[in-house]
Amino acid sequence: MTPVLVGATAVGKTAVVVAWAETESISVVSADARQVYRGLDIGTAKPSGALLARVPHLGLDVVEPGERYSAGRFARDAAQWLGQIRGAGRHPVVVGGTGLYVRALAEGLFHEPPLDPARRDRLRAWAAALTPARLAHWAARLDRRFAGGGRQRAGRAVEVALLTGRGLSWWQEHARETGAMRPWYIQLTLPRDVLHRRIAQRVDEMLAKGLVDELRRILATGVAPHAPGLDGVGYREVTAMLAGRLPERDLREAIVVATRRYAKRQETWFRHQLRDARGEMRDAGCVWTLDATEPPDALARRIAERWHAVTHPASRIPHPDP
Question: Which portions of the chain are predicted below pLDDT 50?
Answer without folding.
Answer: 276-285, 316-322
